[in-house]
Amino acid sequence: MFTRRQISSACAVLAATIALPVATFASDFPAKPLRLIVPYAAGGGTDAIARLVAQAVGQLLGQTMVVENNGTAGGNLASQAAAAAPDGYTILMANQGPMVVNPHLFKNLKVDPMKAFEPIVLVTSAPLVLVVPTKSKFSSAREFLDFAKANSGKLNYGSAGNGSASHLATVMLAQMAGLDYTHVPYRGAGPALNDLVSGQLDFMITTLPSVAGQIEGGTVKALAVTTKNRTAKLPDAPAFAELGLPDYESGAWYGFVVPKGTPPSIIERLRAATVTAINTDLIKARFANEGAVPLGLPPAEFEKMMRAEHKRWGDVLSKAKITSP
Questions:
Q1: Of 243, 278, 307, which residue constitutes the final position of a domain?
Q2: Interval 104-117: pLDDT, tens
Q3: Of 189, 209, 243, at which residue does a domain stop?
Q4: Which residues contact 38 (CB under 8 A, 6 or more apart)?
Q5: 172 CB neighbour count, 10 Å cutoff
Q6: What's the rounded Cα separation, in Å, for the pair 50 and 173?
């Protein structure tokens, strides 16, 4: 997650960038539609953020930004496809799983995302939330934790895929709370949530953007959030820190990266357009509705954050002895 200092820095960058006319960078770019490759299935939190921002960025650039979903192999095929085209027209939606977890999880990656891509901008971050089906016997996070503690191995949970934010947040909870449950990975949060709503899964810790509609529609119950403090979007859902787990904190982050070798002028044009887009009233309101905030961290700070996340989740994976199937 992000400190006050990082968020203040991001706000300063936002203010500086908004004052710059986007047209001053790479004036001949783009001359055709752009591709935004999303390493998860449609319908999840990453996809929702991607489509929202892609539409706004495309409008600013005067070209359509087409979203392509590919959640195969934990997002590795999406990374491979994006890395093959360093022309500025192919962008990868970067987040925790494909960027900083898969290098630890998969032994024979064809593309190491930490080496193959140039960061453009960190777009936003959002909390994750513990949800259960509406008909679940759990009405509070305390009831859930007490049952899981006393009934080792009896609960199952879904995730957006092996190594996704939803997977590792649940693994970290198990490590800190002394729990044991069965993991059922999917190719995105959307398919997993379908099975949660139908009662095939007992619970899920997933991004708030991916499940906000189900919470509002009453098909799932929100029991707790993974941030240090409660989120304004779910004021009645306690943070795990309130439940005897003061060191537990997790979240989901979303950014744009392009293949190494992409011209710097194009990277800057994409960054400037993205920062302008996420600071519009429409997107700020949509982000707020999903517990997210616009960040706009520039390439150097985005890269520094990813390296810290790379180490953090590598430690969690090592302790849990998790490897790719």
A1: 243
A2: 988 889 999 999 99
A3: 243
A4: 46, 47, 50, 67, 68, 69, 70, 78, 93
A5: 24
A6: 27
Q: What is the CB neighbour count within 10 angstroms for residue 149?
A: 12
State yes or no: pLDDT of 160 exceeds 60: yes
Structure token digits, residue 202: 């007992």
What's the domain range around 219? 128-243
Q: Is position 325 within any domain?
A: no
121, part of any domain: yes
pLDDT band at 9 (very low <50, low <70, confident <90, very high): low
Beta carbons of 102 and 75 less than 8 angstroms apart: yes
Write down the pLDDT at residue 20.
Answer: 44
Are 163 and 310 in a shared domain?
Answer: no
Q: 67 with 171, same domain?
A: no
pLDDT above 80 for 22: no
d(CA 255, CA 123): 5
30 preceded by a cis bond (ω within 30 of 0): yes
- The residue count for the chain: 325
